[in-house]
Fold each of these.
Amino acid sequence: MVELQNVSVTYSSGVDALNNVSLKINDGDFAFVVGSSGAGKSTMIKLLLKEIDATSGVVTVNGYNLGKLKKRKIPEFRRTLGFVFQDFRLIPSMTVYENIAFVLRVIDAPLKYIRKRVPYVISLVGLHSKTNSYPDELSGGEKQRVAIARALVNDPQLIIADEPTGNIDPELSYEIVELLKGINDQGTTILMVTHEHDLVRHFGGRIINITGGEIVFDEVISGVDEVLPEEELAQAMAEAAADTGNIVLPDQRIITPDGGYPGADRNGGSEQ
Amino acid sequence: MKISGFKYLANQGIENIWKNKMMAFATFCVLLISLLLVGGSALFYFNMNSMILGLGNQNEIAVYLDPATESARVQEIQSELEGLDNVDTVEYISKEEAYNRMQNQIQQGKAIFDYIDSYEFMPDGFKVTVVSNDHIEDTTAQIGGIEEVQSASSSPQVAEFLRELRRVVSLIAIAVIVALSVVSMIMISNTTKASVFARREEIQIMKYVGATNSFIRTPFFVEGMVTGFFAGAGAFFITWAVYRTIFRILMEQGTLMRAFGVGSIIPFDRIQLWVALAYLVVGSLVGALGSVVSTRRHIDV
């Protein structure tokens, strides 16, 4: 569970990165955090990782009050989380197996358990054939799968994914989110930061939009894959503007006559 | 931490040397050069010190007894002298020997000895060498305090000069060793920093997955220690080869030995154990601590 209560962060340079933000993400939720560059997304991630402290307010993650968390307790806290970064952050000198097993080494897990658990999560992310490969030998999508397996291996309560699709091909992005969704279905809370609005539109769910250090939108929207009731679709079509020929759905998403999404609208719509 | 956990981290440290072999080699070279610079200076200083002490040992106390002293008492006095703390050797010079030496020393006017029919007027004497030239004056005074001793004299100027020389040499040597140590520490610190910097992301990843500082530092510690140990071993073998060569040349040439006394240049066999220990321990410690201290900057995430 993640809870921010009236959290503000002001950097020493005087920049207000977050301004009186309150937010609650319950266990088992899947939430997208969207927003443009400099909106405060990275600051929020840093707060949740206990990389920085809030200037004011209370940050609680997995039952840890981060403002009161002692330095020596940070490793213990971080073991309740899994992180997935845009740049994968795999250790280049370690194989896929070693990168993932490393997390269990950190918590001094028994060797027997490591030998059982690591191949299991590798198979979950579909990389069984790459077990002994080094990160340099993997594609971007495969590296991110390793990063997800690493985040998952410790069976964390919460996975924070910071732009996990930022460095991979668009078609693979969907696979990565599908993977995270699958993990979420098993009960793990997922917080995914992204600026790829089409992904958000595609999958739907809870969308939190941060702009100028404030949460300007926090709603659940339906994904495009969701099958709309006939009458709703008919109503949407009926409401479409006759002059454009586009279909405007009730959540303001627009579908062009050829079934695509107008690019011009991709950065606007759904979270507004 | 479990033993298996420590074994894993120690293995990681050793594997890291191979995985980061270029940086490990750079660290090895810097440590080797530093150890040689400091070790070489220290050995030079010890030898200078030993040579000055060798010179000092050639300083002696001339002791003359009252000519009337009975021969039994002369023997007792010899035992007393030998029993003194700072006395190294006591050489008895009999009246007769003193007389003969005097005859040999006088080149002109040897005819005077035609008028002397006995050496009985000569005093019995001792040539006393001391353990520490620094205390030669005290020892001279002690000897002078024996009732039958007519005179006990040494050369306090020589002792004073040698003391001063040793003080100056020591100061210069300490300054050079300290300066070299500082330069070495800076070189080592920069090299280990560069080595750790190249792996800063690795350290950050470890922090993000919940590794404790000791978990992160242990492989670096082991890696630095092993590199430092090999640098120490390398420094020892280079020192061994160079020292023995120089020693052999000096032995063959012989001038220094004659000037400063046999044994004033320390043979390597006598110090090799200490040199090896110093190189290995200092190399390992500096290597290990250098690595660990350099991780500090990157560990706070």
Note: Residues 25-54+62-80+158-272 of chain A form a domain with the Rossmann fold fold (CATH 3.40.50.300).
Amino acid sequence: MSRYFLNYLDELESEAIYVLREVWAQFDNPVILFSGGKDSILVTHLAKKAFHPAKIPFPLMHVDTGHNFPETIQFRDNIIKELGVELIVGSVQESIDEGRVAEEKGKNATRNALQITTLLDAIESNKIDCAIGGGRRDEEKARAKERFFSHRDDFGQWDPKNQRPELWNIFNGKHFEGEHFRAFPISNWTEMDVWNYIKRENIAIPSLYFAHEREVVWRQDSWIPNSEFLVLEDHEEIVTKKIRFRTLGDITITGGIESDADTLEKIADEVSGMRQTERGNRSDDKRSESAMEDRKRQGYF
Amino acid sequence: MLDNNQLLRFTTAGSVDDGKSTLIGRLLYDSKSIFEDQLQAIENTSKKKGHEGVDLALFTDGLRDEREQGITIDVAYRYFTTPKRKFIIADTPGHIQYTRNMVTGASTANAAIILVDARHGVIEQTKRHSFIASLLQIPHVIVCINKMDLVDYSEETYNDVINQFEEFSSKLLVNDIRFIPISALNGDNVVNRSTNMDWYQGAPLLHTLETMHISSDINKVDARFPVQTVLRPQSENHRDYRGYAGRMASGIFRLGDEVTVLPSGFTSKIKTIDTLDKSLKEAYAPMSVSITLEDDIDISRGDMIVKSNNKPEASQDIEVMLCWLHNNAAKPRAKYSIRHTSNEQKAMIKEIVYKFDINTLERNSEDKELKMNDISKVKIRTTKPLMVDDYRENRTTGSIILIDDTTNETVAAGMIV
């Protein structure tokens, strides 16, 4: 093989750095949407690379549903301190208290959809013109059509049938006042790429991704963690299992899998043998065939 | 997966009728890239629609409208990995009204897969797809002659199609064309070698994709470094650091290289090539790095650093093959913003030289309108010089887009000739 060729992880890294620098060059007030999940941690790591030796030149923004894993919040606060960047928090609880949104009712109620309003409010009130996300095209069929630079109208909505064509690596982030963009630097990464890269770079991630003992309940084909928000059904029972999480969302809807993988090597091995997509354990995606597309159209991550 | 595995991007253009979706489904399925819950979802939908068995084509339908209409509208990206390479498929619709989507998918591809129905031979759509592959300078073209099972796996039919293809493709500029007889439905020569076509001595499709030489697809001769942004940390450890951040578009830079900054023309030498992990002795495309120079020169986004002995052409008048991408037709002498690498200027379309009929490959000098999906040769004048290379030499510094300032939409994409 030629010496002058990048391997696939280096090429993906270089592409993501290029996208992040384009965002910085084309927008006045970008942020990284930071959930504390591995994808947003990866984007933050890549941003560190993109602007070194300078600091990451924009804030991280967390949309806080109030239904967090405590570990995620701890991790978030540590990373903010380490990077020396600003943190913006959009609070779903505040949106509820202000009457902007109403809590869902019933057994499968979540705050997942409520985040959309909080996110869009936070984007508007902080005058953010580009929100950088960790979305990947392999995650979900609606995301397979996402652009690197994805336009949102002044209601924050995505119009998937009327997207700007994106040719070569020329990104058009021009927008009118009130509109904003979402940028997805790791569009071309798969779950496996993310794990291989995290392993290679030895990137710190929350302990929740590693196998650990936890109180859980079996619900909708996965292990939902016990928390102050959990309401048990009559037939349900809390048990202790050795589990880990493949993705991190709200503690109320993120299901774990039984696993012994307690190192990055073991996780990468386990993921490469997986026969289910990582979002298979997210009840927010199970609501309907176009659940993700519908939420994305409204302004979801 | 090995650490030195490469990434190969390929495009597939076509409709369900060609078996394009079946082919992609087959590649993903046989390389075990379809997950159980995805398969389950497809099985459920197949049942709901009353299809027999599992319709793998459904896997490639993304948006609700597409599922309802049973067609691909937009470019969708698919991913799969084998022990040899990582692959990105740009899956694009094949109908003429989606030319712009094909062009988009083709713009970053190393290889194009062109599907020909063995029963019908080379048709207009085949020519259209081949022309786009040639226009966008996709380095490798693989013509898959599909549905061989429906022509009794006939070598004669296969050779007929090749002859038809070669007859018209002599007009195209493609360096590497290969032919593979396949049946996507039955899996012949897709992932596994067919036992039905002993007369075919070549490799199956996946093996071809895994082993074709792509290291030379990027221009390694002409060093071009468009500056994206300037890094000035002004922190205690890096008080005087001034790094030019960008991605090598082509070529190689080494420490000490004599460079010229365009458009100013100032010269200097490369002092350091930096990344977070380490400082490098050399940088090559497509690496993202930060470059510092020996001399303090005023450099900003839109400038280009090149080797002093190898410069692109500086020109305000460029000729491009332009693909119109937008519903609003081009307005004569209207001004647009033009983007070329990280540089942006204003531009005007001065003249439409001719329009291509992409089905017949004939030139039409009468029709002077630029409507959506049209491909035309045009003359463009810019307010300031652009540092351009021929698209055939350099896909990054040879390409432009036009943006309509009244809507901010991307309305056209062009290849400099």
Note: The two ends of chain B are 40 Å apart (CA to CA).
